[in-house]
Specification:
Structural class: mainly alpha
Shape: globular
Order of helices and strands: HHHH
Number of helices: 4
Helix content: 40-55%
Largest sheet: none
Length: 91
């Protein structure tokens, strides 16, 4: 819940799945983020969360591959993970 509070997603609509089906993220998708530290901090928090939430491990692994030059679609995918966490916070 702290991650949701820190990112402002406490009031977000919950999601039943951590990612969209058939989503493909590549190095060239979308615009580069102006503030990459926001993405890196979020993914870092999600990596810590995978210790207790194994269901997030694959998705967070994919997101962590883009820490060097994060782009807008990657941030949107990370936000989808936050909405999934909101769906089942006690899991």
């Amino acid at each position: 819940m702290e991650i949701l509070e820190d990112t402002g997603f406490l009031g977000a609509k919950p999601s039943r799945f951590p990612t969209e089906q058939n989503i493909t993220l590549t190095q060239e998708d979308g615009d580069l983020l102006e503030d990459a530290s926001q993405y890196r901090r979020l993914v870092g928090n999600l990596i810590c969360l995978t210790i207790t939430r194994v269901d997030l491990a694959y998705t967070v692994h994919i997101l962590s591959q883009f820490m060097d030059k994060p782009r807008q679609p990657y941030l949107e995918a990370a936000h989808k993970v936050l909405r999934y966490i909101k769906h089942a916070p006690g899991q």
